[in-house]
Amino acid sequence: MEAFTIHTGRAVPLRRSDVDTDQIIPSEWLKRIERTGFGAGLFSEWRADPSFVLNNPAYAGASILLAGPDFGTGSSREHAVWALQDYGFRAVLSPRFADIFRGNALGNGLLPVVVPVDVVEALTAAVEADPTTEITVDLVAREVRGAGRTVGFELDDFTRWRLMEGLDDVGLTLRHEEQITAFEAGRPAWLPTTA
Amino acid sequence: MGRTLAEKVWDAHVVRRADGEPDLLYIDLHLVHEVTSPQAFEALRLAGRPVRRPDLTIATEDHNVPTTDTLLPIADPVSRAQVEALRKNCADFGVRLFPMNDPGQGIVHVVGPQLGLSEPGMTIVCGDSHTSTHGAFGALAFGIGTSQVEHVLATQTLPQRRPKTMAVTVQGELPAGVTAKDLILAVIARIGTGGGAGYVIEYRGEAVRALSMEGRMTVCNMSIEAGARAGMIAPDETTFEYLKGRPNAPQGADWDAAVAYWRTLATDDDATFDHEVVIDAPSLSPYVTWGTNPGQAAPLNTAIPDPADYGDAAAKASVERALAYMGLTPGAPLSDVAVDTVFIGSCTNGRLSDLRAAAEVLRGRQVADGLRVLIVPGSMEVKAQAEAEGLDEVFRAAGADWRSAGCSMCLGMNPDTLSPGERSASTSNRNFEGRQGPGGRTHLVSPEVAAATAVTGRLTAPADL
Fold first, then answer.
1. Chain A interface mutation, best of B9, B15, B51, B137, highest count of A Cβ atoms under 10 Å
2. Which of A169, B219, B359, B416 could covalently link to B409 via disulfide, CB atoms 3.0 to 4.6 Å apart?
3. CA distance A49 to chain B (A)
4. What is residue A168's predicted lDDT score, i.e. its pLDDT?
5. pTM: predicted TM-score of the whole model, two decimal places
């Protein structure tokens, strides 16, 4: 996956809370067996409305999404992350993310940045007033800078390192294959198998 | 200090623990379906990796499958290609698959329990958020994304941060006519769609203990709708009785060893939870959602909320937006809301006891004029059992449509969808905008309320028939 260190870009003010993954990418798109090409389906129901913010040319090319609390609730579909990335987003800022979405995002190098409600509100107001406003998401310093503010965010050292190096989990885990094999040897014999 | 059920199961599965890193957890059972797996198998293929434990992996076709004319090829070429990809992947990687029309086929969260594969103390994952269902057995079961599906296929493990624990204690007895579905809708309405984020919920208390295994599955299934990845219920005699004799459950001396272990899993008396919520069971009544997320629910005998009653500007806007989408008038009785379609099925309420409850309401009654009623069993086995009891005859005689097994109208990936503006009473788990079809409007209800609604054509509890 693409490494993430410091990203500066313009932002889209979504102004919605409880954005579920059915809205991010409707189920019709889930029939595809590829990993790419989901950007066209991003928020496709909402994009049918000409007044929806993604249809505003002033926000074309923006790479940071500003959202209300509880972003990414519902279905575990990783397609939601693939759609956001394929559309061009590198980071989403929200006061709270759903757990599965957050895990999927971190696994793909889309940075879910938890910032307080008032920070999302201030940044949203700033990019609504001036869509050319740039925001910097700095994973190295673990801070967001924009609209005259600098705000720290939390992310554990291990996850930060993995994102900065662009490492995927499978490769990291397979370094511990001996421990997996040892664990397997100790599992109770009565545990079910699917055979 | 004592440990909770979730902590005991977690601790028993740690393959590797290192400072500052997520725990590496061993996964006992990996359930696979056609929608969230193709990119994972493709990644294995590109990396030249095998499935590490095909004997701990099982697949079924559920999300895309049609529920009529199942002996014909799937008409939608994209759905067909996805199902065919699963068949090829399972054949190539040696994974057991229940394809369409196989007697073992069904919704992934119905198949695991009915085989006895979902057992207490296990770790269970699936590329599907409703994997929380299996927590009803005292398993730690949670939904994962496709990259994690690949990770489990390749390593049979997952790196995970230890979650916080939440107790939801339901005190007292549920009144007659109040179901597991009403209980979980009430819980979600109380804690909100994000209230469980970062937590594993353990459901406790007299009302939970009194639930059947199928009722417990309904409750745990919707934990994710409160933001919790997993919901759990400590195993007890109800659990053991359900499991005993199932095809993949332990037998003989193995059964005794397993039960002895399962009895150690309950939360210790001196264990503490990070958060506790208490629900008063006797105060509950049939619940129904009015909005566009499962937390927007209220007792059926109340009125549609008025945005003016919400002080917080964001909450007010959210309610306004939901009511506009749903086409509802603030202050009107919920029981006046007329529906076009009733859907009974899904991993939440597609099991035999759900169908029995619906049949009990529909027996000797007729579906309201012009109403479409789809009844979709959760698995082919549930279908066969229901037919052996004559439930299909009850449904047909009432004017309902009896279908084959699958996810169906829960998410509308197959031909069973709502049209724009069409309104449903649905026993499924999500009332998101467009969930059952673009522009569709969903009210989540219990099977009993769904069946009573089918009779009157408007949201109705059986007691009011």
1. B15
2. B416
3. 12
4. 87
5. 0.97
